[in-house]
Every structure is written in structure tokens, then in C-alpha cells.
Amino acid sequence: MKKKLSPKYVLRFLSVIIATLMVLSTLGKVLQLYVDNKLVDFFVKLFYLDNEMAVPTFYSACALSLSGLILILIALKKKGLQEKYLSWFGLGLVFMFLSIDEICVIHEHLSGMVQKSYKTTGFLYYGWVIPYGILILLLGTTYFRFVMALQSKVRYYMILSGAIFIMGSVGVEMITAKIAFIGGEENWAYITLMTIEEGMEMFGIALFIYTLFLYINIEFGSLKITVKGNKSSKNEKKITSSEPIKFH
Fold this sequence. Notes:
This protein is mainly α.
């Protein structure tokens, strides 16, 4: 059985989810201003983009995990073809770590440690941007040749998706940090910029997933997945099926 999955369809689907989450987050905060109700408070707790244990966090963790899984699958395919695969595998591990970070809020705990140790203020009020910024520079330096060796279209979208994600997660985050340091997080300047920041992060990952599907389409045409299972019978025959998943 052949399954077709369009990279553009995936991007549109993820973009609709992202837009919906942003609208629900903003709607909840607006309602909270005018309605003193426990149900509204619960709605905000569930959908507010700045809450760690919320639906948007779960979505982001899933999107990052999906990115990591696709990268690892590409690495395994490359290895099977006896081509260089370690860079793909390493990048896959990075995204798996980011997914864990999203759920376990590692960067939030790290931020508190940096703030306490170095008394960070202003744009560096969220201290995690310092160590993570250094790691981003190291990762960019390490993967520069890898990215530049990709097909032009894939390279363009990979750089664009990375730029959107980093500008949101680090650039806009530093501006929201300045606002939070001066006037706290319960004001519309912070809420608006935080919403833009989270939207850029989520869309950057969605575009990256699109880029990976595009790469698979160009490089392989399809990924072949072999599923093995045992069927209970007198002879206990083993059934093997191979199904190519094509991206068009």
C-alpha cells in the first residue's frame, strides 16, 4: 500500500494548529480581563502560550520530537546507503533534547541558576539565553558546511526555518525579558511579544519539518519501512511487509 504525504499539506496543517493555539491563548487572556470565572481561568491555564504545562507546550514537544525522529530516520537511510549519516543523527539527538527540554523546562531551571549566580537583568533577565546562545553558535559553526552542502532549495528553507526559530526563541525572548524585568509579565506589551515569540518558534519548527519532508522527496523519493511480525498459526509463519511512504 502506497501512502502519499505532501510537504505543503503538512506545513498548512501545522500552521492551522499554530494559528489556532495563538488565537485561543489571546482569547483566554482577553476574557480573563473582563470575566472573573474559574472556567475562564482554567481555559487560560490550558491554552496560554506562556504556561509550561499546557496544550501549546505539548504541541511544541511533539513537533520537536517529530523533527528529531525524521532526522534519525534520514540518518538510518543514509547509513543503509553507506553514505555519511552522523551529522543527521547528531541533529536528530539535538531536537530530541529540545523536545525533552520543552516538557521538563530545563532551560527555565537553568535560567534561575544563571540569574542567581550572575544577577542578570534587562535583556538577559532570562539567563538561559546565555548558555543556550553559546550552544547555538557552536552548533551553527559545526553544521555550517553540512548545511551549505545541501541542495539549494533545502538549504534555503533550512536556514530560513532556523532563523525564524532563533529570532523568536532568543531575539524576541530577550525583548520580553526586558519588559518582564521592568513591569512583570501581566501586561499587554509582554503578552503580545510573548505570543509573537512563541508563534515564531512553532512556525520555525513547522517549516523545518516541511524542509525535511522536502529533502526526503528530493533525495530518496520515498522511505521504505519494513514491518515484521509473528502470526499465530500451527506453523508460526513470519509475515514481512514493506511499504514505501512517498512525499509528493
